[in-house]
Design brief:
73 residues
């Protein structure tokens, strides 16, 4: 298995942003992370996420981690 496909975690950041009428830029400013890092997460290329970042994203999007991340078999 390729290092880029060895996990089955999917992110739903794009859907959550759209539902809340928020841009990636606005979320990045609110959370204190770069647009590049959020874009990597949004596009499913992230290899890890800090709990502090996950907490900040959930706080700003008013969601739970399970709304943002799912595991696909």
């Amino acid at each position: 298995m390729s290092p880029d496909t060895d996990h089955h975690i999917r992110t739903h950041l794009d859907r959550l942003l759209q539902e809340r009428g928020m841009t990636l830029t606005e979320l990045a400013d609110r959370v204190g992370v770069t647009i590049v890092n959020l874009s990597i997460l949004k596009n499913g290329r992230a290899r890890a996420i800090r709990f502090s970042t996950l907490s900040a994203i959930c706080r700003e999007l008013r969601c739970q981690p399970g709304d943002l991340l799912t595991h696909d078999d």
